[in-house]
Amino acid sequence: MKTNKILKYICTTLAVLFIGLTISYNVNAKPLDEILNYVVTVDVSDDATLFIKYDISWKVLDSSSEGPLEWSKIGLPNNHILELAPVTSNIKRIEKKTSGGSYANVYFYDKYYAGDVVDFSFIAHMDYMYQAHPDDGYVEYTFTPGWFDDIEVDNLTIRWNNDKVDSWTNDCIIDNGYNTWSCHLNPGEKKTVTLRYPTNAYGFDLNKYAATEKDNDWNFKEHSLIANIFFIILVVIFMIFICALMIAPFAVPFIIIAVVYNSLSGFRLSGERKITRTIIDYYPSCPNCGGSRDEGSDKCSYCGTNMIKSKHEIKDESPFGEYKEAFKYMEKGDYKLSSPNRYVRVNVIHVPRSVPVTRSGGGHHSSCAHSSCACACACACAGGGRAGCTTKDFYNTNMKLSYLLNKKRR
């Protein structure tokens, strides 16, 4: 009996420590860095390639969790990087990476600690950047600077040389010959701009563009239906396997502790449903680019701007008030209400509670544990590094642009 009490005490202590450490990690997780200023200046060359200058003011907030800042990772538009060149003397070297995304690894001579601010600049010479519309008589650049999933950008400024520009999207100002956009970005947010030129403005290779589009087109329907279904099944199985590997290190210790504790304490875990309802009002159109919201999406599919105008949780204590319509929904999901652009988001969780197990009479009690796996694999920048970035190919890299050996910088 004494041994059982000791074991119960040890198991309970370990369970409390495990849960406490998990909660503490999630609550106390703080950003490592902050970007004070992020200026991207774009000049179009005669051969239609782009010279993009990055001026970044980077502040270190935490140098103890992962060490001081020694390098950063900046997302680039695509993997057709003709040249990377440092501008400031504090850059030791720049390496281009095109595996799992396209970005520049910028290495510094010095180490930077909490409270330090490093100002650095470099230039990227990029190809494969425009889309041609010869039938409509224009060529279009759609540009999204590399963004940061885990870092707040206090100020982003995009400057695009206004020479020969015919039109552009989104409101901007003309400053010293540059179309200029400025905004603040929360972690994960991004800014996209689009500019159009006449087809004769620069050395746009329209014939090669059209031929490449035809040669490189990959049509899904060319493959058999069975082959397509088999491929999708393999992808789903692989995703489930990856999610299981990610969850296992955290779930297995907790399950073992719970099983041992239940067997010794005479208690088992039961659960009850807890329903929370959140009223969400969406913007009728994107406040940034004017695009319409896709059903079931909280962000604009064109520029990534948050489409949620406001949201607040409603309580079960008042089911007969303004939101009485929302209380008829009992299952998890988003449900449209009668008001335009208003939805109720229902979340259902099972709250565990301990109840005594009746051992007399030979009764058998069982319980079912429900879990879900949400695996996000959208981040294209894999590997180490402080700078969390996400780069995708928004620039239609099926295009082939002529690359002039005797290129001339504007």
What would you note in describing this structure?
There is one protein chain. Helix content is 19%, strand content 36%. It is an alpha+beta fold and 410 residues long. The strands form five sheets. Strands 4-7-2-1-11-14-13 form a seven-stranded mixed beta sheet, with no helix packed on it. Helix 1 crosses helix 3. The longest helix is centred in the middle third of the chain and has 41 residues. It is globular, with a radius of gyration of 27 Å. The chain starts with a helix and ends in a 20-residue tail after the last strand.
Key descriptive features of the protein:
410 residues; four-stranded antiparallel sheet; alpha+beta; disordered C terminus
Strand content is 35-45%
Major sheet: arrangement of strands: 4-7-2-1-11-14-13
Distance between the termini: 85 Å
* Average pLDDT level: 75
Q: Which stretches are low in confidence, meaning pLDDT under 50 for 5 or more residues running?
A: 210-222, 354-385, 387-410
Number of helices: 3
State the major sheet: 7 strands, mixed
- Round the Cα radius of gyration to an integer and report it: 27 Å
Helix proportion: 10-25%
Structural class: alpha+beta
| Global morphology | globular
Give the SSE string.
HEEEEEEEEEEEEEEEHHEEEEE
Number of strands: 20
